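Task: sequence design from structure.
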């Protein structure tokens, strides 16, 4: 079976967080008997247009000249790039033309085109009359929750036209079923995650110098208004009033960073909150290993990779009632699930965690076990995706 993975985001170098999970999907699919995988992704300045990564051929489509004016893909993502850059907006028609042309050419030798995100899915479906291949689309959710109406419409169109659609959280699955009108060839498959060994976690933690009694809370995400870090900071400020040994680390960057730093200063949290900024994906694990609690205050979420990774590293999780994290966390056992936007609920959840060290320790252990119970490994994810391919090919 020949599989062509088509995506608008794919790592440009080792450690690049852009679509990092697709590297694992491509690799684990390629390890299956008689499966050949190629990847088609956008080009970027200073990145090779053709390379082989872990046995997987990766081709990158150049869509604008000169290279440094390719501003549509990567960074904060296509919707955000269009919003903040006129050059990115001007890139759009050229991107669609050149990407569609390369997609049509490369997919002629494939059995399955697996597109990720709505724009890639729409291009794969729109060019089906040329390549005549089965089109599977994975909806990761950001293309449904974006404020860009055109991207939402394009995503909805590709959901209806694809041969099969995969959602990575139940909320998106139900949305997809509603759009298509029935459950036929709609699949709910959670993404995989890196599951570190006990030895690996112990090694990372041994490298972290930590004073006894200190509790480190961490949150990892793009700093955008929808993540509601303002709610987290306000709740955390109240928490600090009665706890002198608790600290918050925020990993990530985005348009809301300056405003959040200003709010942190207003709340007198400068010595208790650290804004780390954007880091290489592998570096995130070091910050998780030195932390005690993971908190997500977001209003929007799909798979919630950072939450799942925190769980795999044995951190108890406080999350809002959105996306897969709300399914993953067992309220009162592995952490707490609170209403999005509720400062008071977030504060109470953190207070409960700090009030019971035994619960804190056991919740983290149970959170890590839950990742195992749900079989959220890279290889298991690839096997489930492969089953979707087989179902689609049988129905052809």
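Answer:
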């Amino acid at each position: 079976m020949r599989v062509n993975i088509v995506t608008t985001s794919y790592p440009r170098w080792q450690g690049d967080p852009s679509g990092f999970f697709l590297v694992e999907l491509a690799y684990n699919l390629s390890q299956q008997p008689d499966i050949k995988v190629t990847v088609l992704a956008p080009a970027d300045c200073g990145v090779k247009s053709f390379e082989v990564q872990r046995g997987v051929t990766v081709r990158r489509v150049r869509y604008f000249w000169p290279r440094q004016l390719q501003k549509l893909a990567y960074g904060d993502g296509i919707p955000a790039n269009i919003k903040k850059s006129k050059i990115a907006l001007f890139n759009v028609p050229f991107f669609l033309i050149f990407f569609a042309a390369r997609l049509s050419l490369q997919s002629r030798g494939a059995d399955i085109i697996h597109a990720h995100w709505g724009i890639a899915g729409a291009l794969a479906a729109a060019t089906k009359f040329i390549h005549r291949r089965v089109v599977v689309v994975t909806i990761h959710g950001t293309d449904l929750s974006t404020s860009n109406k055109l991207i939402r419409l394009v995503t909805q169109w590709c959901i209806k036209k694809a041969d099969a659609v995969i959602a990575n959280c139940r909320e998106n699955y139900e949305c997809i079923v509603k759009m298509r009108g029935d459950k036929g060839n709609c699949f709910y498959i959670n993404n995989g995650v890196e599951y570190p060994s006990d030895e690996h976690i112990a090694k990372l933690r041994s490298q972290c110098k930590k004073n006894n009694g200190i509790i480190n809370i961490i949150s990892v995400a793009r700093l955008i208004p929808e993540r509601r870090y303002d709610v987290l900071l306000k709740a955390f400020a109240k928490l600090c009033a009665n706890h002198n040994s608790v600290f918050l680390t925020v990993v990530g960057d985005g348009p809301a960073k300056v405003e959040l730093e200003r709010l942190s200063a207003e709340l007198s949290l400068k010595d208790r909150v650290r804004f780390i900024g954007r880091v290489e994906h592998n570096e995130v694990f070091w910050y998780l290993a030195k932390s005690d609690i993971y908190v997500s205050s977001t209003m929007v979420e799909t798979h919630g990779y950072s939450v799942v990774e925190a769980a795999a590293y044995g951190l108890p999780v406080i999350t809002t009632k959105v996306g897969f994290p709300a399914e993953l966390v067992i309220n009162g056992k592995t952490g707490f699930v609170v209403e999005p936007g509720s400062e008071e609920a977030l504060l109470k959840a953190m207070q409960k965690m700090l009030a019971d060290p035994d619960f804190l320790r056991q919740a983290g252990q149970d959170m890590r076990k839950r990742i195992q119970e749900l079989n959220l490994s890279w290889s298991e994810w690839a096997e489930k995706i492969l089953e979707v391919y087989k179902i689609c090919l049988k129905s052809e």
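The longest strand covers residues 36-42.
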